[in-house]
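Hi all, posting the design record for the shared folder.

TITLE: backbone redesign
STEP: 1 of 1
STRUCTURE INPUT:
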C-alpha cells in the first residue's frame, strides 16, 4: 500500500483520556478513532490487524473441526426470556423496541440464538457432535468502558458453541478448544496463561480463562511457583491452615474508643492483624448474614455467593449493620449479635484461637475469643480472597504469587444450563429424548489487538510481532526529489509485494525524520530505508523494529532477503 493513497493520520499527542500504551499508540498511530464512550471506528491500519487476528482464529477453529456461521446482532427478547437471562443479565444488556413495540436486545453473547437454531434443526444423535462459531460484533453496555479496545461497549468476539450427546463428549471438546486456544494465542505471539475461572454471567460448571500477562491487566491472578495451578483470584483457592491452634484465653471485653478499622484496632491493642477477625454483614438475597475472615484478609464475594447459593449478595448498609449488631460500623462481632443471623466462618478463622472481634457495642472489642467456646458458626468454608504468598492448595510445596492479566478468551463447560430451559433436545441411540450437553468458547478479537500492544511496545510506539503486524515491511523513500531513490523504492516495493509480503510504502512528501518516526510509531517489524547516499553505493538499509542493528544490503538482493526473513517469522 502506498501511504500517500490511504488514511494513516498519525498524531504527536494522544488524547488525555488515553492512559494505557495500547490506547495511546492506536490513536497516535492512526489505527483507531473514538465515536462515543467504548465505541470506535477502525481505520485501515486497525482493521488490517483485526483481520489478521481473525484469520488465525478461523484457521485454528476450522482445523479443530468447527463450522463458521453468522448470527444476528439484533435478538428478540423472547429468546432471552426463555433462558431467564432477560431478567438476570442486568444493565449490561442493551434493550430497545422496534417500531411495532417489540422488545429486542443487541447480543452481548449468543447462547440463546444458537440454542434456538440447534433445537429446531438437530433431532438425532446422528447429527452430533456439532461446534458452530462466528466472528461478530457484540454490545455490552459496560459501566466503565476503558483503555480503548480493552473494554469497549461495542467489540468483536469470536464465539463458539458446541453440542454433544453426553458429558464425556462435551469434555472432550472442551479439551480440544482449550488446546485450540493455546495454538491461537501462541500464533498471535502473546505471552499468556490459562487459569481456572469463575463462570460469571455465562454460567456452567467448569471454566478456564486465557490471560495475557501484563501489569496493565484488569484481572488479578495467582499462580503457584511449584505446580501448574493458576487461577483468577475471583476463584482461586489457597491451602487452609493445617493445624488448629489451641484456645487458652477467656473471652474478655476491652475498650477501644474510636478504633474502627482493623489497622486502628491492631495498633491500639498491640495485636497483629492476623489475630483480628473481621465480621462483615451482608444481605444474601435480602437476608442478613455475618461473614468472618481474618483481619488481614478480604472476603471473596464471588466464592461467598456460590457457597450461599444466592443470586444477589450486597454488603449491608450502615443502618442494616446497626440493626443486626446493635453497634456502629466497625464494632461488629459474632458474639452477642442483636439479631441472631447465620454466621459463615472462613477456614482460617476456624483454625485460629484467642482472637479479637468487635463487641457489638460502641467503642469495644472482645479479646480471647474462640470458635465454639464463644459462638457457633452456621458453616465453615473458604470465603476469602487468595493472596500473594499463600500456600498452594493443589500441591504440597508451592506458594501462590500474584500476577495481572488481560482476559483474551474463556472456555466454559455448560452442561444443560441452556439446553434444558430452551429445549435443545435430541433422540438418543435408544430413542430417548435427552437435553444436549453444551460448551461455549469466547475470544475477544479486538481485545487481543490491545493486549498484543500492551506486550509489544517501547517509548516510540508499537513493536508488532510479524503475525499481527498490519504491514510486515515499511519501505521508506527518504528523498522525494531524487529519481534514483524513487525508482529503487518503487522497485523494492513491487518486488516484495509480488513475493506476497504486506508492504507499506512511505511515498509521502515528508521529511526523512517524519518517516522514521511514523514507522516506529506504527510498529512495522522490518524497515527498509532508501536514501540518496546508499543508492549511489548500491545499498539500502534494513532495520528490525525490535532491534538496533542497521544492515546495509545490496539492492538486487534486498527483496529476496527481506521476504525470506519475514516468511520465517510468520506462524
Ligand atoms: P470481562 O470479565 O473482561 O468483562 P467476560 O468474562 O464478561 O469479560 P466473556 O463473556 O467471557 O467476557 O466474553 C468472551 C471474551 O470477550 C472475553 O474473554 C474477552 O476477551 C472479550 N470481552 C468481553 N467483554 C469485552 C469488552 N467489554 N470489550 C472487549 N472485549 C471484551
Ligand atoms: Mg470471560
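Okay, here is what came back for every position:
SEQUENCE:
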Amino acid at each position: 500500500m502506498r501511504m500517500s493513497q490511504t488514511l494513516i493520520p498519525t498524531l504527536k499527542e494522544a488524547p488525555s483520556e488515553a492512559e494505557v500504551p495500547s490506547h495511546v499508540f492506536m490513536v497516535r498511530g492512526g489505527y483507531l478513532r473514538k465515536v462515543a464512550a467504548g465505541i470506535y471506528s477502525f481505520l485501515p491500519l486497525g482493521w488490517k490487524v483485526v483481520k489478521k487476528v481473525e484469520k488465525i482464529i478461523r484457521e485454528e477453529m476450522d482445523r479443530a473441526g468447527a463450522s463458521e456461521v453468522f448470527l444476528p446482532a439484533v435478538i428478540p427478547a423472547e429468546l432471552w426470556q426463555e433462558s431467564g437471562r432477560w431478567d438476570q443479565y442486568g444493565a449490561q444488556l442493551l434493550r430497545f423496541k422496534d417500531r411495532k413495540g417489540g422488545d429486542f436486545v443487541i447480543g452481548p453473547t449468543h447462547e440463546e440464538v444458537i440454542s434456538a437454531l440447534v433445537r429446531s434443526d438437530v433431532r438425532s444423535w446422528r447429527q452430533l457432535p456439532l461446534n458452530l462459531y462466528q466472528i461478530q460484533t457484540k454490545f455490552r453496555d459496560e459501566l466503565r468502558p476503558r483503555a480503548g479496545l480493552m473494554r469497549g461497549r461495542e467489540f468483536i468476539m469470536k464465539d463458539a458453541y458446541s453440542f454433544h450427546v453426553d458429558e464425556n463428549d462435551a469434555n472432550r471438546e472442551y479439551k480440544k478448544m482449550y488446546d485450540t486456544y493455546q495454538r491461537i494465542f501462541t500464533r498471535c505471539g502473546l505471552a499468556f496463561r490459562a487459569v481456572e475461572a469463575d463462570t460469571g454471567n455465562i454460567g456452567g460448571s467448569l471454566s478456564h480463562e486465557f490471560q495475557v500477562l501484563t501489569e496493565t491487566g484488569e484481572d488479578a491472578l495467582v499462580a503457584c511457583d511449584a505446580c501448574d495451578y493458576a487461577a483468577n483470584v475471583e476463584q482461586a483457592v489457597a491451602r487452609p491452615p493445617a493445624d488448629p491452634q489451641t484456645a487458652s484465653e477467656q473471652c474478655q471485653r476491652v475498650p477501644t474508643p474510636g478504633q474502627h478499622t482493623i489497622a486502628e484496632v491492631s495498633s491500639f491493642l498491640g495485636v497483629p492483624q492476623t489475630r483480628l477477625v473481621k465480621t462483615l454483614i451482608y444481605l444474601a438475597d435480602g437476608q442478613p448474614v455475618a461473614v468472618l475472615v481474618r483481619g488481614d484478609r478480604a472476603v471473596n464475594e464471588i466464592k461467598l455467593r456460590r457457597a450461599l447459593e444466592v443470586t444477589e449478595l450486597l454488603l449491608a448498609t450502615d443502618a442494616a449493620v446497626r440493626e443486626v449488631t446493635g453497634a456502629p460500623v466497625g464494632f461488629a462481632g459474632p458474639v452477642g449479635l442483636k439479631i441472631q443471623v447465620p454466621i459463615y466462618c472462613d477456614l482460617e478463622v476456624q483454625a485460629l484461637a484467642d482472637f479479637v472481634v468487635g463487641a457489638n457495642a460502641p467503642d469495644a472489642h472482645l479479646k480471647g475469643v474462640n470458635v465454639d467456646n464463644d459462638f457457633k458458626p452456621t458453616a465453615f468454608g473458604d470465603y476469602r480472597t487468595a493472596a500473594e504468598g499463600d500456600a498452594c492448595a493443589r500441591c504440597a510445596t508451592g506458594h501462590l504469587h500474584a500476577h495481572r492479566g488481560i482476559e483474551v478468551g474463556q472456555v466454559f463447560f455448560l452442561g444443560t444450563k441452556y439446553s434444558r430451559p430452551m429445549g435443545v433436545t435430541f433422540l438418543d441411540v435408544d430413542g430417548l429424548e435427552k437435553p444436549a450437553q453444551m460448551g461455549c468458547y469466547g475470544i475477544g478479537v479486538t481485545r487481543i489487538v490491545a493486549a498484543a500492544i500492551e506486550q509489544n511496545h517501547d517509548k516510540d510506539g508499537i513493536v508488532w510481532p510479524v503475525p499481527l503486524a498490519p504491514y510486515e515491511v515499511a519501505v521508506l523513500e527518504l528523498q522525494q526529489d531524487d529519481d534514483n531513490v524513487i525508482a529503487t523504492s518503487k522497485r523494492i516495493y513491487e518486488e516484495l509485494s509480488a513475493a506476497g509480503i504486506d508492504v507499506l510504502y512511505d511515498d509521502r512528501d515528508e521529511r526523512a525524520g517524519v518517516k522514521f518516526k511514523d514507522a516506529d510509531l506504527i510498529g512495522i517489524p522490518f524497515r527498509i530505508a532508501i536514501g540518496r547516499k546508499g543508492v549511489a553505493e548500491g545499498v539500502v538499509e534494513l532495520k528490525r523494529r525490535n532491534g538496533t542493528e542497521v544492515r546495509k544490503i545490496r539492492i538486487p538482493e534486498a527483496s529476496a532477503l527481506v521476504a525470506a526473513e519475514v516468511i520465517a517469522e510468520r506462524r
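COMMENT: Residues 209, 407, 410 surround magnesium ion (ligand 2) (CB under 6 Å).
Let me know if anyone wants the other runs.
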